[in-house]
Amino acid sequence: MGEEIKIREEVNEKIKNKIESGKYPEEIKEFLRKMLLLEFEHIDEARPRIMDEYIDNIRKYAGKRRDE
Amino acid sequence: MMIDYIKLKNYRQYRDCKINLGIGERGKNIVVIEGANGAGKTNLLNAITWCLYGNELHISKKYEGLPVINTLMLDKLGTGEKSIVEVEVQLVSNDKNRRYKIKRTMWIQKSETGDAEQITDRYQSNQQDGTKLEMFAQIGKDMGYYRDPAAAIQRLLPEKINEYFLFDGERLDDYFKEESGEIIKEAVFKISQLELLDRMVTHLSHAKNEFLSSSKGLTPEVKELQDGKIKLQESLEKMKDELDKLVDSQKVAKKHRDKLNKELRELSPGNIKKLAQERIELNTDLSQFEVNLDEERKGKSDYLIDITPSIFAYKPIAQTLQIISKQKEAGDIPPNYKKNFLEKLLEKGVCICTTIISKKDSKHRKSIEKLLQNCDEITNISGELIELSGELRNIKEQISGFDEKRINYTKKIKDLEEQIRRKNERLKKIEDEIKGCDIEDIKRKEEKLEEYNNEISKVDEKIGEKKITIDNIKLKIESLDEDLLKEIKKQDKLKELNRFCSFCDSALEIANEIKSEIMEETRKEIEKKTKKEFFDIIWKKETYKNVKIDDSYNFSVLDQSGRESIGTLSAGEREALTLSFIAGLNTVSGFDAPMVIDTPLARIDPEARENIAKTIPQYFGGTQIILLVTGSEYTSPVRKELLKNIHKEYKIDFKEFKKGCEAEVMPYGK
Amino acid sequence: MESKAPDRLYCRKSDREIYDLLKKEEPFKRKDLIHIFMMALSAGYMEKNRVKLDTKVGLILLYHVPREVKSIMKAIAIAEEDGNLNVLLDEGKVYSIAEEYATGGIKILKNKVLSGDFGSYIKKLEAELIDKYEKNKKSL
């Protein structure tokens, strides 16, 4: 029958471009790119269980920031 | 994207049919499918929406009560025997790199009473309505299927704005209604995938809350602030729930209202109120006219009776006048002296000159006696004769006026009769139009409609108030958050927590910013393209100045004086605006739909038809356009305008039998 | 011999009920007995049907008869007396001529009125009047 198709369509170019072109810290850009893709993967789910990934990635990318 | 083909099996009048569409070489992007009214054009549109969304969004009254399964097929089935209804649509991207095959299947069983009963196949049905929906895709060299085809279809071709690419020319009135803006905005949001950012914002907020609530070693100040925040958040959730309930109740009321509107439109031909009012006025007029007619008729009758003796006795009248006239001419009327005057003189014995004439042998007496002898009795009534002559002359004049007066009466009567006839005719027309309309029912429905409208307004107000309350709570929470962060910053051991929270805040801000920017840019692009295309297509360019789309996606068409004109657009102009908007929508990244237009020219004036036919191909250069037309729309001049862009032409061959009907779509060239 | 000047118009006893009947019918519902009398007179005069009254009953007081109507009766009486104006000296004779023509015409009138509906009698009357009028037009 074929594999279940997941991500063949792309995230809207406009959103990606806004992130790339914005004057934001690199770690935030990376974080947003990753989370965007994560959301896209779960777009068909009404309540995706992805909080753990959020927490983990916030810890990861926030740790890369200089202390305020 | 284009529709490569549509396959129909036992769907309505289509027993077993495959219609190849696609796009031809060198910009030939139009497919024409011609069919008479009722042949099956709109059911092709319904087949597409049924396949994609499980709903026949354009079903007509004629087919509403009938089973989806072809009635000839149903007739062939035995009691308890099963069959399927299936529609398959294949979509292909213009670069042919992506291919989507969508198929919906429904199982039918013939009941004991001969009706069609839908049954659910326990193993195969995967939709709530008991049908099976499958979506296969080939993208590049990869092939696969979608686990949630319904959701995938919504991303590809959102149902909420389907009327903007599966366009029904008969329903022009439904476009650009008040509520359309919200629906369009939601769909643009979905198409642009901005819901991803929305979800991200939600998740980031939750993550931040989790960080804050899971931190250990909180100072009492921090704990107090956190507790306060929790209470506010609970209150916020409660308000949001209440808001959702209000929105839902409003949606229900709107649904009922829209349903009532639809019912009233169907019940009421044209404007029933106006017709009913006209009927009352006509009846009142008729009563008055009938009274007037009766009076005129009686007036004429009375006149004829009055004049009859005069006309029948005309000869004696004329004769008498002649006699009296001759006597006048002879000097007999008036006479020199009356007989009874002379008699009186003799009786008195004194003449008028005072001469005594009492003696019988008196010379004077004898003269008077001689005069008396020659005097006619008629002299006594000479005055009466003069009067009689005068009267008869009057009568003669009345007779000479007979013709004119009679004709006047007749004309008045005829006029009144004609007016009455015309009013009765109009009355009959009105009666025929509103025959079967239950005016009381319509009145009740209109009253109910007003109730719903009032309810919707009231709930609108409450929603507004609730939103303000929610915003206030959010502001309080924000303020608490700031205080919380300040407290946290004061403490070294909460440095990490502080870092995480700041990071979440930054990400939140950026996500919201990007979302607003994209929405605004998208709106502007759609507005720009819609405006450009609208002014390219319309023929009364000097009438209008601007086309605007506001933040809520409400449309405005401004005339040269800057006045709102959207309500006064003609059918042709409204169609032009809709087509322009669809062209605008196609600029939204990610949206790529074929155009299926059902009876595009039905409500357009003949002069405007060729204009629209001319501009459709140039509007949608590159987009597949499938036109479902009647013979009276697809005239030679219209065909001429479209010819160089026509890829294929079909005709629906519809046959009606005793037990059902069948349609085939045959290649056709006029 | 001159007859005594009458104070009323008479009709035959047997005709009185016809007058009463016609008074209840269209087109005489709104009219007086004098109009019926004159219509009967016209009908009798057209048919040259003069009928003496055998038994008579009073019908209409002359006091109520308009001058115009009396003039028409006088003209008819003069014509009956070969243009002799002297007939006017005998009022009684003038009115009895009128009464005799009315007697001769009342049944004709009744038949015409009651034979069809109101509309058809009036239509026929109009046609007769037009015909008579056309014939006399030249001398008008």
Structure summarized in a few sentences:
The complex is a heterotrimer of chains A (68), B (670) and C (140). Chain B is of the alpha/beta class and 670 residues long.
Structure description:
- The complex is a heterotrimer of chains A (68), B (670) and C (140).
- With 68 residues, chain A is mostly helical.
- Chain A is built from three helices and one strand; from the N terminus they run βααα.
- Chain A has one domain.
- Chain B is α/β, with parallel strands linked by helices and 670 residues long.
- Among the domains of chain B are: 103 residues; 116 residues.
- Chain B is built from 18 helices and 15 strands.
- In chain B, a hairpin with a 5-residue loop joins strand 4 and strand 5.
- Chain B is elongated.
- The model of chain B has no long low-confidence stretch (mean pLDDT 86).
- Chain C is mainly alpha-helical and 140 residues long.
- Chain C has one domain.
- Chain C has five helices and two strands, in the order E-H-H-E-H-H-H.
- Chain C has a two-stranded antiparallel sheet with strand order 1-2.
- The N and C termini of chain C lie far apart (37 Å).
- The mean pLDDT of chain C is 91.
- The chains are: A mainly alpha (68), B alpha/beta (670), C mainly alpha (140).
- Chains A and B meet through strand 1, helix 1, helix 2 and helix 3 of A and strand 7, strand 8, helix 4, helix 6 and helix 15 of B.
- Strand 1 of chain A pairs parallel with strand 8 of chain B, so a sheet runs across the interface.
Q: What are the SSEs and their pairings?
A:
The complex is a heterotrimer of chains A (68), B (670) and C (140).
Chain A lengths: L2 E2 L8 H9 L4 H16 L9 H13 L5
Chain B lengths: L1 E10 L2 E7 L9 E5 L6 H13 L7 H4 L6 H6 L5 E11 L5 E13 L5 E4 L12 E8 L2 E4 L3 H8 L9 E3 L11 H12 L3 H20 L5 H48 L4 H41 L1 H16 L9 H10 L14 H12 L7 H19 L1 H32 L5 H52 L4 H43 L6 E6 L5 E5 L11 H15 L9 E4 L7 H14 L5 E5 L6 H7 L3 E12 L2 E8 L3
Parallel strand pairs in B: 3-13, 3-14, 9-12, 12-13
Antiparallel strand pairs in B: 1-2, 1-4, 4-5, 5-6, 5-7, 7-8, 10-11, 14-15
Helix pairs in contact in B: 6-15, 7-14, 8-13, 9-12, 10-11, 15-16, 16-17, 17-18
Chain C lengths: L7 E5 L3 H8 L9 H14 L9 E6 L5 H14 L10 H25 L2 H19 L4
Antiparallel strand pairs in C: 1-2
Helix pairs in contact in C: 2-4, 3-4
